[in-house]
Design goal:
Layout: E1 26-32, E2 37-44, E3 50-58, E4 63-68, E5 74-79, E6 85-91, E7 98-105, E8 110-115, E9 121-126, E10 131-136, E11 149-152, E12 162-163, E13 169-174, E14 179-184, E15 198-201, E16 208-213, E17 219-224, E18 229-235, E19 242-249, E20 282-287, E21 293-298, E22 303-309, E23 316-323, E24 331-333, E25 339-343, E26 349-355, E27 362-369, E28 374-381
Antiparallel strand pairs: 1-2, 1-28, 2-3, 4-5, 5-6, 6-7, 8-9, 9-10, 10-11, 12-13, 13-14, 14-15, 16-17, 17-18, 18-19, 20-21, 21-22, 22-23, 24-25, 25-26, 26-27
Length: 383
C-alpha cells in the first residue's frame, strides 16, 4: 500500500477518543468527474489520523454517484456521459484497491444509485430523464445488464433513491416537482420496486435533493437545494409515510444568498446557462451513525453546516457553518461517526475532519491531494 506523500497539519482533535483497531480496513472512495477516475484512501486513526492514498482507478468521464454492496465487496459507479453506464469494481478486502470487472449499460444519466440491504438489487434514478430503474445483482457482484424494471419517476428531476432501514420502502425526492415519492419494496419479488407510489409535498421552489433516514427508522431528513433548508419528517414505520415536523435553515443568519433555481443536468450543454453566483446551492446531507449530529453542504459559499439532533423528537438545532473545499458537492461521515471527509468539485484537495463527540464541532486534521471534479464520497469498512 502506498504511504501518504502529503504533509499533515497539526490540528487538535478535541472531544474524540479514538480506538485504532476500529479503523483497520476503513476506506474512502471519491469519484472525480474531470479526471474520470475514482480515488481511494485508507483512513487511519491513532494519535495522528490521516488519509493514505491507496490508488487512482480509471472510470468513465463524468463518473459520479457510487454505491456499495452491504458486504463491502463490490463498488458501483454511475457514468453520466454517453454511453451511460455502470462501472463495476471488486474491493480488495486487504488493501482497499479496486479491480474493475466490467461495465453494463444504463438507460439514462443516473444521478443516484443505491443497493438494497440484501445486496441483490441496484436501484438508480435519472435527473434529466425523470425515470427509475432496477437491476439484479448477481452472486459475484456483477449486475444484470437487462433491467428488471424501468419506469417513469412520477415527478420531475428525481435526485436520490434510498431505502429505509427495514428495506421495505424506497424514497425518491423529486427536485423539480417539490415532492418525495414513496415506493414499497420487496426484495424477494422479480420486480421488487412498486411502480405506484404515494407522494409527500414540500413547499414550491424548495427543491428537495438528498434524504437520509435515521438508524432507528423513525425520522427522515431532507436537504433542499434551492432554499437551503433541512426538512425533518417523522416516519410511519408500518406504512412508510412521512409527516413534516420541522424546517430549519442550514445557512448562517448573516447569509446574503438568495433562493436558487433548478440547474440543468450535469454534463448537458446548458449546464451553466444562468448566473447563480449569489444563489443558494445546497448539495449533501448526512447523519452520524448514533443520530446525534447532522451535516449539510452549500456549494455557492463552499461551506459545511452542523446540527444537533434530538433523538426523541427527531428535531434539529442549527449549530454552526464553516468554510470547506470549494464547491462541496460531496462529503460523508465514517462508519464510526468520528470523522468526516469533504471533497470539492472545484478543489484539488480533500479535507479530513474529526467530529467532536460532545458538541458536533468539525476540527480540520489535514488536507490531502485529490482529483479534479471531485463529487461523491463513499466509505467502506472491510474488516
Amino acid at each position: 500500500m502506498m504511504k501518504s506523500i502529503f504533509g499533515k497539519l497539526a490540528f487538535a482533535i478535541s472531544g474524540v477518543t479514538i480506538a485504532t483497531t476500529a479503523y483497520c480496513g476503513t476506506y474512502v472512495y471519491i469519484s472525480n468527474i474531470e479526471d474520470a477516475d475514482i480515488a481511494a484512501y485508507e483512513l487511519t486513526a491513532g494519535p495522528s489520523p490521516h488519509l493514505n492514498l491507496v490508488g487512482r482507478f480509471p472510470a468513465g468521464k463524468f463518473a459520479m454517484p457510487m454505491a456499495v454492496t452491504p458486504d463491502g465487496k463490490n463498488l458501483y459507479a454511475s457514468v453520466r456521459s454517453k454511453p451511460f453506464s455502470l462501472y463495476i469494481y471488486q474491493i480488495d478486502q486487504s488493501n482497499g484497491q479496486l479491480k474493475w470487472t466490467g461495465s453494463v449499460p444504463l438507460a439514462d444519466s443516473m444521478v443516484a444509485v443505491s443497493t438494497d440491504k440484501t445486496g441483490k438489487w441496484l436501484l438508480a434514478t435519472s435527473f434529466g430523464g425523470h425515470n427509475n430503474s432496477v437491476n439484479q445483482i448477481q452472486a459475484n457482484g456483477y449486475v444484470n445488464p437487462v433491467p428488471a424494471e424501468a419506469f417513469p419517476s412520477g415527478g420531475k428531476n428525481p435526485h436520490a433513491i434510498i431505502f429505509d432501514q427495514s428495506n421495505k420502502f424506497v424514497y425518491v425526492p423529486q427536485l423539480g416537482t417539490d415532492e418525495i415519492k414513496i415506493h414499497t419494496f420487496n426484495a424477494s419479488q422479480a420486480k421488487p420496486l412498486s411502480e405506484t407510489s404515494t407522494s409527500v409535498a414540500l413547499q414550491k421552489q424548495q427543491g428537495p435533493r438528498h434524504i437520509v433516514i435515521s438508524d432507528d427508522n423513525k425520522f427522515a431528513y431532507v436537504i433542499t437545494e434551492m432554499t437551503g433548508e433541512v426538512v425533518v419528517f417523522s416516519r410511519d414505520i408500518k406504512s412508510g409515510g412521512l409527516t413534516q415536523i420541522q424546517a430549519v435553515s442550514s445557512l448562517p443568519a448573516d447569509s446574503k444568498l438568495v433562493p436558487g433555481r433548478p440547474r440543468p443536468p450535469t454534463g448537458s450543454p446548458e449546464a451553466t446557462a444562468f448566473d447563480d453566483s449569489n444563489m443558494i446551492f445546497c448539495a449533501e446531507i448526512k447523519l452520524t451513525p448514533n443520530g446525534k449530529f447532522l451535516y449539510t453542504s452549500e456549494r455557492t459559499k463552499s461551506t459545511l453546516s452542523g446540527f444537533e439532533v434530538n433523538p426523541q423528537t427527531g428535531k434539529v438545532k442549527y449549530l454552526f457553518t464553516i468554510p470547506t473545499e470549494e464547491m462541496p458537492r460531496g462529503f460523508n461521515v465514517d462508519p464510526s461517526g468520528q470523522f468526516l471527509v469533504a471533497s470539492g468539485q472545484k478543489s484539488d484537495k480533500v479535507s479530513l475532519y474529526s467530529i467532536n463527540q460532545a458538541n458536533g464541532e468539525l476540527n480540520l486534521i489535514e488536507r490531502v491531494a485529490g482529483g479534479k471534479g471531485a463529487n461523491w464520497v463513499t466509505f467502506v469498512k472491510t474488516k
